[in-house]
Structure formats: C-alpha cells, structure tokens
C-alpha cells in the first residue's frame, strides 16, 4: 500500500480490499480498530439516518486528513489499521463523557442533528480509558420522518433490506462502504468529493434494487461476522456516480 508524501497533491492509492474472508493474512496481522463516538444526549438524540451519514463522512474525513498521510502524526496508525482487517467500532457518549472524548486527539464531524467524533486507530486491546468506558449498546436511533429519496447525482450508500442492524452497527457498515468508494476513486475524483465536503446519502434499498446493486460491480461490503450478523453477509453497496460506468 502506497502512502504518498502529504505535501503532494495525490492521495493514497487503493489497497487490496479487506472484506473478503479468504484474505487470511489480514487476520494474522496485528489488529487495530477505528473508534467512532456518536453523541446521544437523552433529551435530543440524533436521527438515525443522519447519524449513519455523519459516521460515513467522518471516516472519509479521517482518511483524507493530512495527519493520516505520509509522515503525519496519525499515518503509522492508519497504515497499521489498513494492513489488517478494517474494523470500526461505534460507541455512544453524552454530557461529561462526550466532553472527555472531545479532549482526545480526533476529528468531530457534524450533520443536521448528529455529532460523530472519529479517532486515530488503536490496537484492539489498547483503547484510551476515556473511550474504553463508553457503551457500544444503546445506539438504537429512529428517524422522526422517513428519509427523502436520495439525489441520483450524489453518492449513495445502499443498506441491505434483508438485515436488521443496530444503529451503531449500521454506522460502522456505512463507514466501510464510504471507505471502499474512496479506495476505488482516482485522485481527481477524491479531490472533488473532499472539496465538496463529502456529500453522501445512506438509504435502504428495496429488494429488487438490492439484487441489481449487488450484481452491478460497485463496491460491496461483506461483513466479517464479528458482531450481530453472519460472516460474508452483504451489508452495503457504495454507489458513487464516478464508479457507475466503469
């Protein structure tokens, strides 16, 4: 995997895809995880779809941040993480928990109602104590109103209609989908997306559309099966306009 000098205009080239179970070398490498923390205040929880979209954008912001590239302060951790399985874990925080999380090195990304903070990767057993104390469960969120139809000219991360996932699990899967799309894009396409602020939508496909998407050649996330769903399950298709006709 090539990580160019951060002073250059180019961005990281596409590594091999990490979501296929036959890539056993990834299991043998030291395992790291990308922590994401979603702010869920009791009185004002975020909308589910906005939380998913904000988490996906947070992953893209971390991948493209200059601190993650070349000799940046997070670059070594990012390389170690991407050399193993691309694990992401979403935890929730509120009040003082959120303030402690914000004090750690990372990036906060905001949506319409959601706030998600993404942190540099850490070893599976090496979480900062402020994050290790946070709960994984309790991220069951709802949409006050059904999401509007996705803009066909914008990137869409399509969720499987066949799987039920907690909001935290779906946030991680949306992040995987965004990352696969990022890896598939060339430097110019990445730059355009980044400079636009990483617009994207997360929607659940209807069954007929899902069958078309999974056979379309677009990037597909196949879950490793560590939590909630069976190994190899197709969870997300990354439908970026630049990838539709390749």
Automatic annotation (TrEMBL):
GO MF annotations in UniProt: peptidyl-tRNA hydrolase activity
The enzyme's E.C. designation: 3.1.1.29
Sorted UniProt keywords: Hydrolase
Domain of life: Bacteria
Swiss-Prot/TrEMBL catalytic activity: an N-acyl-L-alpha-aminoacyl-tRNA + H2O = an N-acyl-L-amino acid + a tRNA + H(+)
Biased composition (Polar residues): 1-16
Region listing for Disordered, in residue ranges: 1-27
Entry keyword ATP-binding: no
Signal peptide: none
Pfam families the UniProt entry points to: PTH2
Record's protein name: peptidyl-tRNA hydrolase
